[in-house]
Amino acid sequence: METLVNLDLAKRLKFEGYHKPCKYFYQDKDLSFSPKGLKHCKNDEKLNYNGYDEFIYSAPGLREGVEYLHGKHMRYESSVIIKIGKS
Prior knowledge:
This protein has helices spanning 7-15, 62-69; strands spanning 24-27, 37-40, 56-58. The chain is of the alpha+beta class. The chain has a three-stranded antiparallel sheet. The model has no long low-confidence stretch (mean pLDDT 87).
């Protein structure tokens, strides 16, 4: 099996609009019939899991995920405070 993106990267991909079909997905919520974790379609069908519930995230291969994010204008939170003005 190829190396898949981790859950954090899968969440970022969904946030950035990733919509390609994948064999694997993360379920980030325990359900009465299914514990959270990495899952796959039983018939190996590829689906866009990011189109489902807010706790479901497509899990592409790491290379594909990074290539998708490459060149996107992404915003990152910062802990640096910059004050501009007269002192």
